[in-house]
Histidinol-phosphatase
Amino acid sequence: MSWTNYHSHTNFCDGKYPPNYYATEAFRQKFVAYGFSSHAPVPFECKWCMKEDSIDKYFTEIQKLKDRWEGKLQLYYGLEVDYIPGIMGVKNPFIQDLNLDYSIGSVHFVEAMADGTRWEIDGAHSTFLQGLKEIFGNNIQRAVTQYYEQIRQMVVEDKPSVIGHLDKIKMQNQFTPLFNENADWYQEEVFKTLQTIASSGLIMEVNTRGLYKKRAVETYPGKWVLEQAFKLGIPVTVSSDAHHPKEIAGFFTEALSLLGDIGYQHIHVLLDGVWKPVSFNENGIVS
Ligand SMILES: [Zn+2]
Ligand SMILES: [Zn+2]
């Protein structure tokens, strides 16, 4: 039995330690493959993104680790790339030139406030509320709909290897109940997005960060979304979105057992340079 994880942040962005700490811990925990996915640079102020001039060092560092761990642990060079229409995405020439092993496409930024500050869906709750008021006149349905529209656009136009934390916007509900996941309009938005993902053939991640950070009671996306995803035949990968080496397999047993209960028999992993389905049980993947 072994694990894989392709969503992780090091001190090149907002993670806590240099990449080698994560590789060492991954080997200790019997991982077969591990991927680095620092937040890609964006052309505006972003405190948790990698700086553009760090990219070369990031590549060199991971290349060095790949050589050091060869034959023991497969390591992959990736980025979590923000999709912001017309501004940033996997198709951006800067990202294309990096020849990444894989990419995670995520939507964190939807619209901007009057002073130009980008509105973050998973940032501080007070900033979320400020943007909700300033940009959307406190209309949560309009805000959430725009978030999912942006994800659909990313799936169609950007085609990252993996769709990041699909319903992460729900984390804001833990501070103020803003929308109900059972509302018809919300479920329709999610379902429309899942249909777009299913048609694209892209892999969707099951992200456990909300669980071990206690920001959500379920994975991103949660159970009912994964049930629909399973019915639509959407392939999934399990990732922890680790910002600390101790988080690299956080709540993986729970996530894999949930996927098994839903009916998934395979998860997708990047092995020998290609994404492929592998069998699993709650103790890890069978490769
Ligand atoms: Zn993210
Ligand atoms: Zn992340």
Remarks:
- The chain has one domain: 3-286.
